[in-house]
């Protein structure tokens, strides 16, 4: 029997997105945001929800760009730090000992240590309540060559992305592949 928990922002899993932007002083910043995901195929788009009081909020509005940096489990300490510290008060990248490079396509930084990065042009913003929804058109996806499979596509096992469990505020890694999408269900097709 299922038990009601009430209206809460709980879905499993949620991504760990390290959102990259440049602030008004041109300083690179990363923030941890778990409210997000792919939201359109054509054009390819990703969305992320950010509170207006966050340092990254105005930076994304001003620069009309951001990156989504997918951290591996090896970056769990740094990723969590990017969510609990403010770039308004300190240079989080320097404290974490991580470097960035400037995107050639959008006005936002790419986290060098992240195995997968989405470079996004701000397409739209919508105020929802406590958060605003930023929709970014994906201009390019960059992935470490060591994280590609034989077909040249990103391999989730090699990327080893972190996921967030909002109910108990914990980070997890992906488990085993249990089936091939768009194939497993064919067993039930008439």
Automatic annotation (TrEMBL):
CC cofactor: FMN
GO molecular function: FMN binding; oxidoreductase activity, acting on the CH-NH group of donors, NAD or NADP as acceptor
Keyword Flavoprotein: yes
SMART domains xref list: Flavin_Reduct
Keywords tagged on the record: Flavoprotein
Domain of life: Bacteria
Residue ranges constituting the Flavin reductase like domain according to the UniProt record: 11-157
A Pfam family reported for this protein in Swiss-Prot or TrEMBL: Flavin_Reduct
Similarity section: Belongs to the flavoredoxin family.
Protein known as: NADH-FMN oxidoreductase RutF, flavin reductase (DIM6/NTAB) family
Organism of this sequence: Desulfuromonas thiophila
Biological classification of the source: Bacteria, Pseudomonadati, Thermodesulfobacteriota, Desulfuromonadia, Desulfuromonadales
